[in-house]
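Is zinc ion placement plausible here? Inputs below.
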Amino acid sequence: MSFKLKYQITSRYLPSPSARRSGIPMSPGVRFIVAHDTGNPESTAAANVRYYSNSANEISASAHLFVDDKEIIECIPALTGAPEKAWHVLYNVPTDNQMFGHNANDAAIGIEYCYGANINADEAYRKYLWLIAYACHQFNLDPAKSVVGHFMLDPRRKTDPVTGLAHSRRTYEQLLRDVVAEYKECTGDSLPLTQQPWDETAQSGEVTVTTRLNIRKGAPSTRAEVYQIVSTGTQLAYVSVIDNGEPVNGNPVWYKDENGNYYWSGGVNKVQL
Ligand SMILES: [Zn+2]
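Reply from A.M.:
I modeled the complex. Tokens:
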């Protein structure tokens, strides 16, 4: 599934290792997106990244991307390189863990909206929407469920991106709706396969196929592309078990093979070793 590349993302990485950019990979990977604004009207994407760079070892706060009306700049790898952690939400707030099962700093991309009198609000908003939708696409996240505002995670200290969006005469609810619409437009209206993340447990074994079985690419779902069809009696190996794939006849358990492809557990019998 391709995504319309409307804008360019410029990478201008901060020095690493530094207080702002540890260089530590995201773990367990990118699972959601946090929408921020800079809280500093009139500061552009370039100015913010310059400031981050100049103070890379003085302050540990950071975010991956800055967006204004002119450009999108990535200062910590997220979309232009292997995703690294940034420090954009306090670790001790509980809502990120409740909503997504992870701390935002470990598993979320932080995207900063720039606003103010010198920034064309409509154009900045268009780029911001596109970027959030694009990030969802790149990490196979459902755009309707994977985006959260910083103020939701840290309501006692933060109002972003509500404050910044108000400068574009838009609300947070509007942003969430517009991101989904942008995603649909840029993908030609196809939403990602069921839900992510999969509940995956590393566990290896062998099975015997009991029916004509589809081996699928990309997701434990009957909507995923068929990679290969195997016949009854075929022996297959697996390297992990997914407990929350697409339920087929009420059974959501799928196996993943060593090539990263998936097959439904209902079409096989486990071989007792
Ligand atoms: Zn924020």
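Short version: Residues 251 and 266 are 7 Å apart (CA to CA).
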